[in-house]
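Posting this for the archive.
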Amino acid sequence: MSAPLRVGFAGYGYWGPNILRNLDRLANAEVVAACDTHPGNLAKLKAAYPHIATTDSLDVLLSDYDLDAVVVATSAPTHAALAARVLESGKHCFVEKPLTLASADAKHLVDLAAAGDRILMVGHLMVYHAAIDWIADYIATGELGEVRYLYFQRLNLGKVRADENAFWSLAPHDVSVALHLLGETPDGVSASGADYLRNGVHDVVFANLHFPSGKMANIHVSWLDPHKVRRMTVVGSKKMLVFDDMEATDKIWIYDKGVEPADAMVYGEDLTLRFGDIRAPFVKMTEPLGTEMGHFVECCLTGATPRSSGVDGLRVVQVLEAADASLATGGAPIAIDVEV
């Protein structure tokens, strides 16, 4: 059995504790040391994980502990600089989503990882959800037919942020899933929204992603809504599928419904609607974050390309940037360079 991956950890704030909890459980990884510049966060980390060395300096973390990889779970504005330092030190790097706040910075990280032959993986959590795995496999069987379009709703009342709009805060999940399921990058994005609570910070956004194949994805995000909704609908040429992550058990529903050419003998009819059975397949659920961290460690140990690689992270940032540009112009379509 090979030695476990020696991992360092940066950032024990809002989401960091969840990542570290899952990472520390893995048999093929050893969390050696962790850092945070906030004394309160560092104290909580020490109390929860007395076996992990702690420091308030990323430089010390990178130089003093003989690490193979580092997880960056700090705030989004720090991702570009911290991940660059990790990669420049010759270590594999996991970065919580979004990869960066600018596609130029994301491209720089991708280039650094490639030049150093290091793994760069982004925390696109929903790509590791058991239900999304099942849906991807189901699409591949052809049972759904050709996927025509998808639409997503990610809504709730709060958490309202001041440093990023609702699309940057919520939509990376849905953008990453859309790109994963369709297997292509959008060539254009248009978005409209409103900043009801804070001037210049959109709290509700409706975005349309157009793909080179002609497929579409619509994403509606809001933190100003009476319901907590986490739902995706996939419309295929044969069947339709709904994934509702708020359901405790039956998260996926398949509808044998569609529109087909009518019987040629029926005069005046050129289309007919089909209404068939509805079923909810059983899907064994696992904690997506545990799957995600296990995948990162395995990729570092084997050299495999992550399911949510740095290139995938860059593509998601490109979509987020294009949505911002479209919002600034009142909804004008913004082209995306798909040759990444």
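The chain is about 35% helix and 30% strand. The longest strand covers residues 224-236.
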